Amino acid sequence: SGRGPRHAPVVVIGGGQAGLAVGYHLRRAGLAPEEEVVVLDDAPSPGGAWPHMWDSLRLFSPAEHSSLPGWRMPATRDGFPRAEHVVDYLTRYEERYGLGVRRPVRVTAVHRGAPDAPRYRLETTEGPWTAEAVVSTTGTWRRPFWPRYSGQETFRGHQLHAADYREPSALAGRHVVVVGGGNSAAQLLAEVSTVASTTWVTPRPPRFLPDEVDGRALFEIATRRAVALARGETDDGGVGGLGDVVVVPSVMEARSRGVLQARPLPGEITREGLRWPDGHEEQADVVLWCTGFRPDLGHLAPLRLTRHDGVPRTTGTEVVGEPGLHLLGYGDWTGPASATLVGVGRPAKDAARAVVEHLRGGQPKRP
Ligand code: FAD
After folding, report:
1. Which of 95, 118, 162, 295 has the fewest CB within 10 Å, making it most exposed?
2. Is the shortest distance between the CB of 245 and ligand 1 below 6 Å?
């Protein structure tokens, strides 16, 4: 359309749980959804990454401990919630609070506005938008992390990432190597090992939480770690903050079958399988990479944000030097346990408060 760009004081990029949580708090702070705060989401339907997760996936915490701000996730009868229960909850949450998510709209680039124009200009699949503040909540699902291994490209077997996995039948009767030490690896190893022979390789010996402790403790641990980090104290490690494995029923059952023996990472991948530095070799038909994800931030490239440890430098959710730009939901670096349902609420509230401050500050300082 020949019209100029549409404008909203705040644009939230991404309508998954993180986008909804900050949308909820911005609305509570008095901003009118669809006019003053617009949520642009490129998915055809609600739920963020949750519709894409494998069929048998269970949350590693009970429903009442997996809630977004304002509305408790409805309880489930048969154990921890499945992914479709989360999709249903997020769908209803969006309607309940009238967060007016516009979808499918993909934000392809965020630029700084011209000196006398609004602070940000966004290119999107429905035309340009401008905003005084932007909250990026695009998640990590579309950036699965594949480690680089010498020999990987000549491996004659099949390779897939946890993000591509739906259910085990295609792997039946084969030898599957599961790579990774987190919850996804343990849950997929537990499932795949019911139909295939498996080898589990992990960067460090896997750390299981005590049986009676579930995901709740992970959030406390992640929060304590993030607080310690914020104080400049050392961090006790743990893969991505949620690296400790919750012994959900399927993992407990797999342990009783003795499949949870982990080997260190191999040195290389051969045509036939894996080879360790001590010369030990194992044939493999499939390598299942449960090696996590990276933040999906390509749309922010035009802003040339300074990076630290591969991610933009932030204090809490605010990008250092960019008071109108917030990042939320990507991992501990955007707030303790902010990449989880129960953990995203607090940093979302902080981000909303900072955005409202920024808007009140009138015409923001030019960068
Ligand atoms: P997402 O859910 O990925 O949502 C991002 C949204 O932004 C999507 O709708 C996407 O389409 C959209 N988007 C992306 N780029 C653009 C763009 N350029 N323009 C417009 N829209 C865009 N957490 C728990 O609390 N408990 C668990 O048990 C748990 N288990 C997990 C298991 C797995 C396998 C994984 C991967 C994660 C798990 N998590 C769990 C972590 C976390 O809750 C999920 O990763 C969740 O999806 C993160 O929500 P999000 O809103 O940050 O990102």
Report:
1. 95
2. no
